[in-house]
Write the structure tokens for this entry.
Amino acid sequence: MTSVVWIIPLLPLAAFVAVTFWGERLPGRGAYVSIAGIVLAAVGGLAVLAEAAAGARADVTYTWIAAGSRPLVVGFVVDPLSAVMLAMVGCVASLITIYSVGYMAGDPHYPRFFSYLSLFQFSMLFLVLADNLLFIYIAWELVGLCSYLLIGFWFERPSAARAALKAFIVTRIGDFSMMIGILMLYLRTGSLRFDEVFHAIGTGSLGGPFLTVVALLVFGGAVGKSAQVPLHVWLPDAMEGPTPVSALIHAATMVAAGVYLVARAYPLFLLSPGHEALTVVAYVGGITALAAATMGVVEDDLKRVLAYSTMSQLGYMMLGLGVLGYSAGMFHLITHAVFKALLFLAAGSIIHAVATNDMKRMGGLARSMPVTFWTFLVAALALTAIPPFAGFFSKDAILLAAYAHDRVLWLVGLVGSFLTSLYMGRLCWYAFAGEFRGGAAGGAAHGDPRESPAVMTVPLVILAVLAIVLGWVGAEAFGDPFGHFIRFEGVEAPAGNSGVLLLSVAVAVAGWIAAGALYRWRLVSPETLTGNFRGLYTLLVRKYYVDDVYELVFVRAGAGVVWAAGAFDRYVVDGLVNLIGWLTGRVGSALRYVQTGREETYLLLAALGVVVIVLVRLVW
Amino acid sequence: MITLTHYLVLSALLFALGLYAALSRRNAVAMLMGIELMLNAANINLVAFNKYAAPGAIQGQIFALIVITLAACEAAVGLALILAAYRRFETTYVDDLNLMKW
Amino acid sequence: MIGEAVAFYVLAAITLASGVVVATSPNLMHSAIALVPTLLGVTGIYILLNAEFVAGIQVLIYAGGITVLILFVIMLTEGGTGLRVRQRNEQVAIAAAVSAAVAALFIALAGRTPWAQGAGTLPSYTPGAIGQNFLGPNLLLFEGTSVVLLVTLVGAILIARKEAGE
Amino acid sequence: MPWYVEALRAVVGTIVIFSAVAVVAAMFGVLLERKVSGWIQSRIGPTHVGPRGLLQTLADTIKLLQKEHVVPGNADPAIFASAVVIVPLAALLDYVVVPFGTTRWGPLVFRDLNIGVLYFAATSSLIVVGILMAGWGSNNKYALLGGLRSAAQMVSYEIPIGLVLITVALLAGSLSTVTIVTVQSHLWFIASQPVSFLIFLAAATAEVNRAPFDLVEAESELVAGYFSEYTGMRFALFQLGEYGEMFAMAALAVTLFLGGWHGPVLPSVVWFLIKLYALIFVFMWVRWTFPRFRIDQLLNFSWKFLIPLALLNLVVTAFFVMVVRR
């Protein structure tokens, strides 16, 4: 399987082609084809994971462009990192695709959705398997395109269209930085393959401030794709897309691609002088983790809360990678993919039932939607790092690494952990406890919310089981097989520290209790709090004014530049062009008397020319 | 003794006749005939050069044959055009065909 | 040798005399018919130059084909034998001057240039040599010409045919 | 060979061709035509002049020589007069390359040109010019129409003839008529090229304007076509050209397909003449048997049937020459 690993991305691609061209006529209006493609890919991914766990490694390369002395060699790699990602992407995407059959039922553009989904799956698998920056970049752009297409899937809604555009443009900024980084790397090393780049770093031909700059430029791409500060503004808006898309792209896989890139190119960051690049990664991650968590606390939109949570958790992953917790960061990526996908899918189930995103209009859903409730609760507990759920092991490992490396970041992580529990608790109390508060405005006819069909709940249950058990593969108690499987030579996880562990669990539990105190038992009214801390509240609700600053700085200033450029074009450039045109016209009308329109005249002039030329030749 | 120059002089004179016909005739068919004369003059040159300047090769005659072939093409298309123009404007005199003139 | 000279001068005289008729005759039909002796004169010149195959093709294509086409078109477009139409345009004087100048200059050029005398001999059986050459070194030329011929065939039919509505 | 010997040979050759072909062949051809038509139509034909009417054509010729030359009013006299010369001249020029037989000194041919069949095609194509000149110069609408028809017809049928010539030259490996006859010593090309022979026969009939392809001079439509206005000896010269061309075409057919002079026992010239007159008889037989075509049928027959068929035949022959001779 490892030597023909390139087949795996081709399965969803084939499904994409088939569904795009014959969607309506295929079984299940294309959905079954799409599911078949990704399930087969998932099986292949699991097989590859098994083989990789047994020690198989592969790097399938071939020369794409033989450009002189610098042939462009590309290929696919199978190593623990890519094998784990392959299996994770395959499994999560399979479950989400199956879930979509229920969620998207009745949508007029049903086959289009599955065709996009297959294209995205292909791109993501392609990205994961790439052994070189060129393929990574191609896949990077492809997943960006799919993200754009899927966010704007309901493009007839202006907000969706705008959100798609925003996501695309904001991530482009990161991509541009990444492209410059890749080009600098290529110019210096003459290769884009990770092996050779790392080799160049090893031999010292790549190093010093240059390496730091390249690493940071490449990290810029990860910042954009993983919605880290300051390029985080697109992710909450991206929730305009269908919920399975949010689960797949904007929670489990694509946004994790930034983290994956950092992990894949880890030597690039690790070996920059004085860990400068890694420090930047860690602080960007930490700031994002904290800021996103604070914003999540005041958000009322169910999916947006989850989006902030995703940003926050991605920040944790970056933080983990930045503080030398290589396997911790990757482990959190995997576990997070599972439980965040579960959260989104459960949220989708809720939204499917109540037809609103506003959590203040829900309530009491625990009774009417038991499966959704229990799976959601499992995922929330996993997210808030309550043992023995998956998130506990991964987040704990990150905090442990941070504690060993940088206490400030550890504190940031701890506060973030508290806030995570707080907003998740708030979400759970609002949505599931109490009485039903009406659902969609004017949705009275909707009646009481009902549990979703099996095609949606079965993936939820599967994911919930995974969210419980998956963490154990990284547990110290079981010998930490994950940490032994995915690790980076020279970067060892710090030894366990029960004090730190207990403290983080305590903080998480405290968050839940605080949420319960605020939103369930009303010991302190939230309104009182917002009244007392009005400034802070407004700051959080306005998302630290980042969007407004961007609006002011980039959009308005951009509009000004555009206007100036337009004026320049209209009056100076067009003026010059028109002047030239006018002059040509005048000269033409002056010269048209030479054009007799008679062939004899022209022939005569040609003959005269011959005479002149021959005369000159003879006389000279 | 006939030399290359003899043929070249004959060719030059024939060419001048053709040029004069092409320049001074009003009728399109007559102009076409002038062009044919010029092509023949060129062919004489080609064949004469082949004999005197490069007798080892056959290239001059090859070119002459190609010129004859293309002359046939040119005549066919030219006459077809003249016929089409005649059908449209009822004249073959080129100074009457002045629709495109300013 | 003297035979060659006689033949050359006789052929040149035929060619040029009928060429003058072609170029200057006020009667279009006379011009076109005078084209026949001109072309036959040139054919004779080819034979003098040991280019028998070119000569044969010249008669077949030019005298038998192109001239017939020209005569055909004249018959279709001219009114009749009795009609007299002005055949010269207004630039006839300058045209004559330029043509004379071209002839004089070409003759001067031909006389002044020291033409190199090439080595080798012409093949005795030219059709075979020409065929070998066409299907050998000049194959591209040959195929290109055949494409031109095909395009001409289609193009001439397309141009000259009557429109459906006419 | 000094130039005056060449010139002398040319003069003698011209005289021989003219007298032999014009006086004997063409005159006898006209008589034969009348006799054959009479035979086919159950008549007797001319009987009065000479034994069994043998001298009838001679008498006609003498009569025509005495007649007045009428030039139509408003005709173009130069063109009108010169057309008469071109048609028989072009027809007679064909005989330069016809190999009549073989002797111990070599083949009986005026000039064994190395472009033989090409020369034949070239000279016979000149006849069209003469016919067009006659049609135009007469200033007569029937003559003009006859001329135009003739041009269209002869140009159309030159192409299948040319293709057949190429096919035969391909088989013989030469354009020379003598060589073509020589290589037929064992197998006549009619055996290996029956399709070519039929194409050639049909196209030759049209090329010499004989029924059923005689649209050019169809009496019932165009009076007599391009020579309606010609009288006296000029008319006779057109007849000479026409019969000369017919004999030339038949001679070419004999040369190309019927093995030329080859034949057992009898002298070669006799064999050639036997084959020639057999073919002439076929021409006449066809003329008095088949009705006339329409002009559009005629042209369609050439462009849509004969030319594709000849092309196909050429390709097949070329293929076999390439494959078998290798």
Chain C has a mean pLDDT of 83. Chain C touches chain D at residues 2-4, 6, 27, 29-30, 33, 36, 52-53, 55-57, 59-60, 63-65, 67-69, 71-72, 75-76, 80-82, 125-127 (CB under 8 Å).
